[in-house]
Specification:
The complex is a heterodimer of chains A (about 190) and B (about 250). Chain A has helices at about 5-10, 15-35, 40-55, 65-90, 95-105, 115-130, 135-145, 150-155, 160-180. Chain A has about 190 residues and is an all-alpha fold. Chain A is globular and about 50 Å long. The mean pLDDT of chain A is about 90. Chain B is an alpha+beta fold and about 250 residues long. Chain B has 4 helices and 14 strands. Chain B is globular and about 65 Å long. Classes of the chains: A mainly alpha (about 190), B alpha+beta (about 250). The interface between A and B is large, with 58 and 36 residues.
């Protein structure tokens, strides 16, 4: 079923919407949740929560790209769950390594960012990603959006793990400089 | 800023970029050709051993041999010409195996990219719905304006790019040309290849070229970044010799 038709089912409050979503994007959401949480049980629960959130948010929303809409919800829910669990104990999925790497780009100082600042920062990161090749952009997002492991990225892009790590390191460093030049002291 | 906050901010990145990266995750990694050949060679060895000890009819042997050849030739798309696939140049495609679309896995995520074009690093969009899309897309880097030698199966597309998937920056009034030569086919003298262009990521319709040696010329009316593509429109293997892409002012 096409995405538009699935979204229409949500708007019609037809419960088949969830069934169709699960059929088409269940594995996709599970992959994101499992990358972040590291275990099937938690990932499964997050995916189920994703369906509930989607049901509750469409309408009023009408996503342009259903996959990323679902992916974003799964990513946020999984990350919340990770943080909740992380408060009690360490360990879990790929996310800890991902966060360690991202720590290189930020100061770690807690400050309250305004919503407008965040939007500008997102725009600047998007602009930065436009300056690098499509492949590098995808490698970056596989790692920091989907939290995919280095070895999996290496397999998918036909690269060595070392090469992926070096590429990511260079992108992070380049991005940090790019943002700094534009006045973003993270 | 805390790293967790930064992770959340990355979550807001442009959706289209996220989709593209998602497709890369789900891209099926094809087995290297040497692996397929090794399997085929092993199968051939087994068949020959068994054949030595078994009395079978001539027809049955032919069937087995055909199956082995099918296994050897079981690839689909466009590849650089290498010592391993060189023997296929000019040959007839003798297998009837349904071609496997190299970048599609048919998994749950396949719904994101309902057409194969979306897996391309060069193409973002299609100029018109009437354009017939290829069955696979392969991208080849061009060095010093010279394309590498490639071999293609029916319906596959090869896109030529410069460093980092860049095209050729053209200004209005320029002429972008692509001179190419096909290897001679043993099957048909006039294999059809479609040659076309992509402007600023948008795929435009191509034209069919049947001559063995030909030149595609595009008079630039609108400045932009242009890539040349070719699609094999012949049922047998189509191989291209080195060709040249150049801009004349």
């Amino acid at each position: 079923m096409k995405d538009r038709e699935i979204v229409n089912l949500y708007w019609e409050r037809n419960s088949n919407a969830i069934k169709e979503t699960e059929f088409k994007y269940g594995r996709y959401c599970k992959m994101i949740a499992k990358n972040i949480l590291g275990n099937d049980e938690d990932a499964e629960e997050c995916v189920n929560d994703t369906y509930v959130n989607t049901w509750n948010s469409i309408p009023p929303n009408r996503p342009n790209i259903l996959s990323t809409y679902l992916g974003k919800i799964t990513r946020n829910l999984s990350f919340d769950r990770f943080r909740h669990r992380h408060a009690a104990k360490r360990g879990g999925g790929e996310i800890e390594l991902v966060l360690e790497e991202l720590a290189e780009c930020v100061s770690g100082v807690d400050r309250v960012e305004q919503e407008v600042e965040k939007k500008e920062l997102v725009r600047a990161i998007n602009e930065f990603l436009d300056t690098i090749s499509h492949e590098k952009c995808s490698i970056f997002l596989c790692r920091y959006w989907y939290a995919v492991s280095i070895s999996e990225i290496a397999t998918r892009f036909g690269m060595s793990e070392e090469n992926v790590s070096v590429t990511l390191n260079r992108i992070r460093s380049k991005m940090k400089n790019y943002l700094k030049e534009r006045g973003y002291e993270l | 800023m805390k790293k967790e906050e930064f992770f959340n901010i990355i979550g807001e990145i442009d959706e289209q970029k996220v989709v593209t990266a998602g497709m890369a995750i789900n891209k099926k990694k094809s087995s290297p050709i040497w692996f397929k050949r090794s399997i085929a060679a092993a199968c051939l060895a087994i068949v020959l051993c068994i054949g030595t000890f078994m009395i079978v009819s001539v027809e049955a042997r032919a069937t087995v041999a055909g199956w082995v050849i099918q296994s050897i030739n079981d690839w689909f798309g466009a590849e650089l010409i290498t010592p391993e696939n060189k023997e296929l140049i000019g040959k007839e495609v003798i297998d009837n195996i349904k071609p496997e679309v190299s970048f599609s896995e048919g998994s749950a995520v396949s719904g994101i990219h309902e057409n194969i074009i979306e897996t391309s690093n060069v193409i973002d969009n299609v100029a018109s719905d009437s354009i017939v899309l290829p069955d696979s897309v392969s991208e080849f880097e061009v060095m010093n304006n010279t394309i590498p030698e490639i071999i293609m199966t029916n319906g596959s597309m090869a896109i030529f790019y410069q460093n980092d998937y860049e095209g050729w920056n053209c200004s209005a009034g320029d002429t972008l040309s692509f001179s190419f030569e096909k290897y001679v086919s043993e099957v048909t003298p006039n294999q059809t290849i479609v040659v076309g262009y992509i402007r600023d990521g948008v795929l435009h319709d191509g034209i069919a070229c049947k001559k063995l040696e030909d030149r595609f010329e595009l008079a630039i009316t609108e400045a932009g970044e242009y890539n040349i593509y070719v699609i094999s429109a012949t049922s047998d293997y189509l191989a291209l010799k080195q060709g040249v892409i150049e801009i004349s002012k």
